[in-house]
Design brief:
With 446 residues, the chain is mainly alpha-helical. Helix 16 runs parallel beside helix 21 and helix 20 packs antiparallel against helix 21. The radius of gyration is 29 Å and the shape is globular. This is Magnesium transporter MgtE. It is found in: Cell membrane; Membrane.
């Protein structure tokens, strides 16, 4: 209830008394509730709310926002307040924000950092976009392999307040090369004089240039708390934590779902996204799909004479195109997800084609048999046979194409989701109609 009260208060005139009341209400809310409220408010009102918080809470709330949303607030906060937040952020969060800012503003913010923080930020900024290095934290507590457990614990205590995590501790040799990893629980449960080399375990690591999504999914699949990130020579350069991996996969999944629906993922929460941005996220796809759908019109025009002779064929067009599109979309969604999880790779395309062809044929056989019986009773056996055979053919084609397209997209280094539902629906509409009319001509001797 306090969240709604605070939202109503922020929607009115911001007098000194109202600001004081807003600060009191915000003090009684959790950071998560404040984040949720900021995501629903306009930029101006969200900045007012941030300014009612103490520095620690304001930073925690700001860092929890999407980078694109942060960039909008930076423009509204004012230079001093925005600079203070930027300087206090972690290096990896700074880089995400810098990617959303204009070059001049990004350069200005970088100039405000002290040499150490600028160096850490530049280390992350120097990694390729979309790589795991762009999402790692360089503030990692490493333990020399020559240390004892007691010495390692001493290093942890010294870095408690500035390290990204202390629950996963990379172990390195004298050259900084990763040789193992050590969990804090194991460290605490071991006698102080024990050498670290005796209690460390082999490290699951990521290379700084690897794809962020692929590395994050592998991270989560292994159920890790932290994963060391190394360079090409296996020297330790940073670490990724479980919250980083979850954020990466959430962004990727949101983008895939949006593209499967024929739109672009919103980069800010819905209520804080301008109407113009909502339109831009959808209009390009609608135009592309409208042009693609013209293929269907061309097919109908080619077979206009067939429709004129047997008008009843027109009644089944929505059924056939809809079934083909849905079958293709099901296959594409399944394979896109399997690619994201690593269950399928581009090398498996022949196996996927065979499996999806069999699945499509079985689905088509079931649906076609039902259609033959129902349409045959109502419109006669010949019409029933046309509909049954078309469903068998369309489902087989749609499932095979739907399974293949995401894999082909990945081979072409495109997002598999782009080739998913919208384009496959258009493709199966056109090909399904061609198959339909060819079968009708053959069976009905038109």
């Amino acid at each position: 209830m306090s969240v709604d009260t605070l939202a109503d208060l922020l929607g009115g005139e911001m007098t000194p008394a109202a600001l004081q009341e807003a600060a009191q209400l915000a003090a009684g809310l959790s950071d998560g509730e404040i984040v949720g409220l900021v995501e629903r408010l306009s930029a101006a009102r969200a900045c007012v709310l941030l300014q009612t918080l103490d520095e620690r809470r304001a930073l925690a709330v700001f860092e929890a926002l999407d980078a694109a949303h942060q960039a909008v607030l930076v423009d509204t906060l004012g230079e001093d307040a925005a600079t203070d937040l930027f300087v206090a952020m972690d290096p990896d969060d700074r880089v995400s924000l810098l990617d959303e800012l204009s070059p001049d503003l990004a350069e200005h913010f970088l100039a405000q950092l002290d040499p150490r923080e600028r160096g850490l930020t530049s280390l992350v900024l120097g990694s390729p976009r979309q790589s795991i290095g762009r999402r790692m934290s360089p503030e990692v507590v490493s333990v020399p392999v020559t240390d004892t457990v007691d010495q390692a614990l001493g290093r942890v205590r010294l870095r408690l307040h500035d390290a990204e995590t202390v629950y996963t501790l990379p172990v390195v040799d004298e050259s900084g090369v990763l040789v193992g990893v050590l969990g804090l629980r194991r460290l605490l449960a071991t006698a102080p004089e024990t050498p670290v080399a005796d209690v460390m375990r082999p490290a699951e690591s990521g290379v700084v240039t690897e794809d962020a999504e692929r590395t994050a999914r592998r991270f989560l699949d292994r159920k890790l708390l932290g994963m060391p990130i190394v360079d090409a020579d296996r020297r330790l350069v940073g670490i990724v934590t479980v919250d980083d991996a979850l954020a990466i996969t959430e962004e990727a999944d949101s983008q895939d779902v949006a593209r499967q629906g024929g739109t672009e993922a919103l980069r800010r929460p819905y209520l804080s996204t301008a109407v113009g941005d909502l339109v831009r996220s959808r209009i390009v796809w609608l135009l592309v799909l409208a042009v693609s759908a013209a293929l269907t019109v061309q097919v109908l025009e080619i077979f206009e004479a067939t429709l004129t002779e047997v008008v009843v064929l027109a009644l089944f067009i929505p059924l056939l195109t809809g079934t083909g599109g849905n079958t293709g979309n099901q296959a594409a969604t399944t394979i896109t997800r399997a690619l994201a999880l690593g269950d399928v790779t581009p090398r498996d395309i022949s196996r996927v084609l065979l499996r999806e062809a069999r699945v499509g044929a079985l689905l088509g056989a079931v649906l076609g048999s039902l259609a033959f019986l129902i349409a045959g009773v109502i419109y006669g056996p010949q019409i029933g046979l046309v509909i049954g055979l078309t469903l068998l053919s369309v489902c087989t084609i749609a499932a095979t194409v739907g399974g293949a397209m995401p894999i082909i997209a990945q081979k072409l280094r495109a997002d598999p989701a782009v080739f998913s539902n919208p384009f496959i629906s258009t493709f199966t509409d056109a090909t399904g109609l061609v198959v339909y009319f060819l079968i009708a001509r053959a069976v009905l001797h038109l």
